[in-house]
Amino acid sequence: MTGTLVTSKVNGDEVQFIADPGETLLDVLRYKLNLMGAKEGCGTGDCGACTVTLNGRIVCSCLVLGVEAEGATIGTIEGMADGNRLHPLQQAFIDHAALQCGICTPGILVAAQKLLERNPDPTEEEIRYWLAGNLCRCTGYDKIVRAVQAAAAQMRA
Amino acid sequence: MRYARPETPAEASRLLAAEPGLARVMAGGTDLLVQLKSGLVEPDLIVDIKHLPGAAMITREAGGFRIGAAVPNQALGEDRDLVAAWPGVVEAASLIGSTQVQGRATIAGNLCNASPAGDSVPALVAAGAVARVTGPNGERDVPVQQIPTGPGKTSLARGEFITSILLPARPARAADAYLRFIPRTEMDIAVCSAAVNLELDGKGVVARARVALGAVAATVLEVDVSAALVGTRLDDAALDKLAKAASAAAKPISDKRGTVEFRTHVVGVLARRAARIAYERAAR
After folding, report:
1. Which of A34, B188, B208, B280 has fewest C-beta within 10 Å?
2. Which residues of A touch B34 (CB under 8 A)?
């Protein structure tokens, strides 16, 4: 296998990496760029634990090849906080105990941030549908929904 | 495995045709990467068509919409004119997978994956959509129902791939709708489904009707429902005839998601309900 030199922008920084053609963007992020926030849950696009933004849309990074990221703009959970200051969604997840084991949390935060960008005042139903591709086996989702609503309210204020 | 990112359709076609091993076209990759992961396919070459000119664009053409083969389904719902003209196609495409999958998956990919249960395919067939195919012998336009030939199989020849899909112009008082049955509320594969596309005359009488059914045969199934619907205002008798025609046309299998009996009955119910929705939309 021959690797391909790929240049992308990740969380605002230009990065370069050598990707094997069969390597997923998730593996590139985790093992070549050392961004361990995105998780592999299922590896088949069902669970959303590997959610990142790719050119402005949320995607499962396990369903993207690293070589596809040439010239792309990528956002991961590592780019969410402003230095030591947590994003309102991150703080709301802590305040509302919207996580337990935490495996799903980075993906849910990235997905929820995109929802609030597109719709600052989503209904509970809209939140649940938007996050339907982010599985959580701990919380039962209710606290996640409440946390997103609380963060949305705070961000609107 | 090698990865290629051609910049012209001719180059893409040449790469696909010249590959001695197994070549696969990649648009959104949401089916392909799952197949790679499971070892279902082991391609020697992946040809990424997202960077071909126009591949990521929806363009107006002769009153209709040409949807590039790499336009993600989420973008369909963001185009208000498209939603207004073809609400059924957009709702069908929007049902596929999660928000994350919506950011990548395409209707061209859904068509070429050739699953009998692909959600956007019945809606595209009922809409009379036409696929533009590029290959070693140039370009040809193919009605979408001629693309899938069986589960996982298409009529595309070696070196051929879809560059765009055209949804035709709409007369006034026309609309479509798509419904599927799944045992949960989202993130599932259709047990069976129905797409209905209606054109009404000025008095609210059905002038043209096309119906296509999903997951009740090896490929999407178009049913001739003119006798049941044309000339009616979609009264109960017409809807009964439609449901009977849909159930009679269905040739499903039994599997873990549904039995022959269930699919045969429910596909008629879905056709009836989708027809009502399409009619209400068209009459607005």
Report:
1. A34
2. 44-45, 63
